[in-house]
Amino acid sequence: MRAYIQRLLKEQWPDKLVSTSHNKIFSASVNNLVVAVRQVNEKSVSNIYRGQSLSSTINLRSLLYHPNIVDMIGYCIDGDQIFFVYNFLPSGSLKDHLHDLPPNKKPLDWNTRIKIAAKGIKYLHEKSKPPVIHGNIKPSNILLCKGYHPKLSDFLGFKERIPESDKSNHARIFSSQCYRHAPEFYMKFKLTQRSDIYSFGLVLLELISGRMAEIRPSLIEWLIELLVCLVIVRAKRKLVGGHEFTALADPLLKGRYPEQGLYQALSLAAECLQSKDASRPRIGDVVNVLSNLASQIYDPKTIQINRAGTLTIGNLDKERLTELWQHVWSFPT
User: What is the pTM of this model?
Assistant: First the structure.
């Protein structure tokens, strides 16, 4: 692997995929296997993994194997440059299939969006020993392979393994995208498993609405403002159905989703985005809810029944959803 990458250094890279201030990603071929090669500066890595040696960081990453995690095939250190080799996924990332779609590209349907979810995070939080904190969950770090099967990726793979019981603060340099991080990170540089839940809540909200978290007003501000308007309209018109919440769904879905599923997904997103980390659900509970939602196949001929057995989303459900969104946290603009 080292000899191959060193040979590539002397030649022109076949195809540059991504280039940022922190790293470059190329596609290349190793023994007829197409791979993604990520080039990073050792100083950038040291800034992220303060207090942890480079060798232990790479070793920890190499031990992570799961169907929902991008495999790291190998690495090479050449001077102050580090090259990580991963399986190449030609389908791109969730961001490529969710935002700024060309006219000829089919949007993701509701069930596919719900299935592109949190199983990889569940492995990191509950199965890996000790637990792993991802620290940078966003659509561009959720890669897709055949059948829209999701695989988690990251700047260097994953952040260090920090047991949730560790009470110390973890100041890390991630990126300028603080709006994707939980309030405890923004205010105290504290990173925990519940911080990952917050970031996932934003991803879920993007899947529901089709809007990017980067645009202004922020995704959360947009949703809360729209919810307030809906509450006012509902009160004036004395609405009893749940149809008003469909205004929060991605227009590209064209109404092809179960309305109860939409309500439950919005509720789960709000729970994940709560200001207090202790109020957010654990990843196991998130996966259970999403599995239940994924089993609700959309059928326009099927009558929508809610938990209470009625034909509409009840007023108590609406009040609970509105109450949940009053306690979410949004990065100050």
Answer: 0.83
Residue 276 DSSP symbol? S
- The 10s digit of each residue's pLDDT in 140-159 is 889 999 899 999 987 443 44
CA 279 to chain centre: 19
CA distance 330 to 219: 9
Which residue do the tokens 């519940």 mark? 194
Nearest Cα neighbor of 172 from 152, 194, 153, 155 is 155
Rounded to whole angstroms, the Cα distance separating 315 from 320 reads 9
Share above pLDDT 90 across residues of the chain, in percent, rounded to a whole number:
26
d(CA 321, CA 114): 19
CB 202 within 8 A of CB 177: no
First to last CA, the chain: 45
316-332 pLDDT, tens digit per residue, is 677 777 788 878 877 66
Of residues 208, 189, 188, 177, the one with CA closest to residue 272: 208
Contact between 101 and 252 under an 8 Å Cβ cutoff? The reply is: yes
**Residue 35 is encoded by which pair of tokens?**
């791979």
Tokens standing for residue 284: 């196991």
Token pair of 54, please? 């480079």
In angstroms, the CA 249 to CA 254 distance is 9
- Cα Rg, the chain, nearest whole Å: 21
For the chain, give the percent of residues with pLDDT over 70.
Answer: 69
Is pLDDT larger for residue 169 or for residue 297? 297
User: Using CA atoms, how far apart are residues 197 and 52, in angstroms rounded to an integer?
Assistant: 24
pLDDT at 63: 82
3-class secondary structure, 326: coil
How far apart are alpha carbons 208 and 211 in whole angstroms? 8
130 cis-preceded (ω within 30 degrees of 0): yes
Q: CA 255, 257, 259, 261: dihedral to nearest 10 degrees?
A: -150
CA nearest to 41, candidates 86, 85, 82: 82
